């Protein structure tokens, strides 16, 4: 019975969070217009961060590939009981159950592929966790320094050109996870790219993944420090060795644009490259 409750909660979360993923999947390459930063403050996708005070049991989705009686392949999602580690930081929303309990379920920023694979194996899903809320188990915290203020913290290469041609432009992607990882995804195909931010979508395997060891925010510049170079982005070696050996600078240009009079994106530079990230949901 408990398993059915957890699965239903994941479905509720997917309905409420699916707007962003659907919008990115359906956007066409036309009609990019500048919008004000104040409009993003009003309608931008915000976050609620929590930290686990102790190891906690909960549920995560994973998927299995099936073949129908007609011989067609399809993906089936299942739920697995797992133990989440102490200190894990999540972006989550409170979801009530029909039994009166309150659960925390994944919101817009994902956990790292490394953690999800450790918990459920290689066939992992995006935004797939749920666990029972209790002040004894979790504490609400301010946004971690390494997190961007709006959206799902997935940056796509190409800047304005990439946004205006979204769906056709071969963007690479950089994902910042709530548990403190930088994941880099080299472009392979548009479906894989869109699955990065999708709900109930098979999670692509990152080309590179490094743990963030330190982060500093100065005005509109985010400095991330880590132990080894990320191939594909223009980070910089700043120390001879140690956990702060490399530094990546992410700069918010504070120049948001709207695509097709619908979903909006903010422009960033990552090192010396231009990126964008979706920061509002779709009106559709």
Offer a concise description of the structure.
With about 280 residues, the chain is an alpha+beta fold.
| Share of residues in strands | 35-45%
Shape: globular
What structural class do you assign from the helix and strand content?
alpha+beta
- DSSP helical segment count: 5
Helix content: 10-25%
Instruction: State the distance separating the first and last CA atoms.
Output: 35 Å
Number of strands: 19
Note the run of SSEs as H and E. HEHEEEEEHEEEHEEHEEEEEEEE
Specify the biggest β-sheet: 12 strands, antiparallel
Q: Tally the structural domains.
A: 2
Report on the architecture of this protein.
The protein has 284 residues and is an alpha+beta fold. The chain contains 5 helices and 19 strands. The chain has 2 domains: 120 residues, no CATH class; 125 residues, no CATH class. 18% of the residues lie in helices and 39% in strands. The strands form 2 sheets. Strands 1, 9, 10, 11, 12, 13, 14, 15, 16, 17, 18 and 19 form a 12-stranded antiparallel β-sheet that branches. The longest helix has 25 residues. The two termini are 35 Å apart. The N terminus is likely disordered.
């Amino acid at each position: 019975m408990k398993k059915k409750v957890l699965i239903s909660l994941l479905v509720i979360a997917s309905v409420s969070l699916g707007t962003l993923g659907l919008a990115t999947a359906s956007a066409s390459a036309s009609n990019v217009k500048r919008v004000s930063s104040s409009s993003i403050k009003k309608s931008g996708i915000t976050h609620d961060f929590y930290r686990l005070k102790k190891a906690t049991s909960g549920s995560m989705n994973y998927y299995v590939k099936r073949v129908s009686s007609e011989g067609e392949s399809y993906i089936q999602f299942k739920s697995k009981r797992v133990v989440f580690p102490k200190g894990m930081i999540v972006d989550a929303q409170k979801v009530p159950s029909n039994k009166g309990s309150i659960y925390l379920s994944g919101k817009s920023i994902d956990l790292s592929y490394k953690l999800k694979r450790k918990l459920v194996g290689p066939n992992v899903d995006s935004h797939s966790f749920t666990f029972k809320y209790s002040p004894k188990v979790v504490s609400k915290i301010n946004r971690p320094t390494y997190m961007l203020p709006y959206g799902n913290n997935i940056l796509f290469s190409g800047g304005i050109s990439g946004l205006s041609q979204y769906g056709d432009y071969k963007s690479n992607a950089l994902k910042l996870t709530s548990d403190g990882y930088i994941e880099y995804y080299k472009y392979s195909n548009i479906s894989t790219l869109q699955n990065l931010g999708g709900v109930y979508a098979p999670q692509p395997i990152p080309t590179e993944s490094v743990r963030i060891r330190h982060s500093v925010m100065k005005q509109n510049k985010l400095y991330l420090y880590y132990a080894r170079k990320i191939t594909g982005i223009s980070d910089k070696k700043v120390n001879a060795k140690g956990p702060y050996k490399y530094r990546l600078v992410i700069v918010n240009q504070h120049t948001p644009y709207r695509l097709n009079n619908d979903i909006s994106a903010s422009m960033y530079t990552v090192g010396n490259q231009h990126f964008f990230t979706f920061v509002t949901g779709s009106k559709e």
